[in-house]
Amino acid sequence: METDQLKFVLSELRFSVWLSDEMLRQIAAVSSLQFFAGGSIVFREGQRGDDLLLVRRGRLALEMNVPRRGAVRIMTVGPGEMAGWSALLGEGRMTASAIAVDDVEVVRAPAEKLQELSETDHEFGYRLMRSVADGLSKRLVATRLQLLDLFAETPPSASRLDRDPIGDV
Amino acid sequence: MNSLASPLSQDRRVADPWQTHPVVIRDIRREIDSVATYDLAFRDAALQRSFRFAPGQFNMLYLPGHGEIAISISDDPRRTDGMTHTVRTVGNVTRKLSGMSVGQTLGLRGPFGTSWPMTPCVGRDVVIVAGGIGLAPLRPVIYALLNDRCQFGRLNLLYGARSPDTVLYHEEFEDWTSRGLIVHTTVDRSRPGWLGNVGVVTTLMERLRTFDPRNAILLCCGPEVMMRFTILTAISRGLSPRQIWISMERNMQCGVGLCGHCQLGPVFVCKEGPVFRYDQVSSFIDIEAL
Amino acid sequence: MTTVHDTRHEPRFVNKEKFGEIFALLRQRGYTVIGPTIQQNAIVYAELRSVEELPRGWADEQTPGKYRVERRSCDVWFGFNVGSHSWKAFLFPPHTVLEKAESTDEGWQFTTVPDDPPKYAFLGVRACELAAMRVQDRVFMSGAYVDPIYHARRGSALIIAVNCTQAASTCFCTSMESGPECTSGFDLALTELSDGFVLESATAEGAEITAALTTEEVTIEQLQSAQHARQQAVTQITRKLDTTDIRDTLLTNLTHPHWETVAERCLSCANCTMVCPTCFCSSVTEVSDLRGEHVRRERHWDSCFNVDFSYINGGNVRDSVRSRYRQWLTHKLASWIDQFDTSGCVGCGRCITWCPVGIDLTEEVAAIRGESP
Question: Is some CB atom of chain A closer than 8 A to the CB atom of C315?
Answer without folding.
Answer: yes
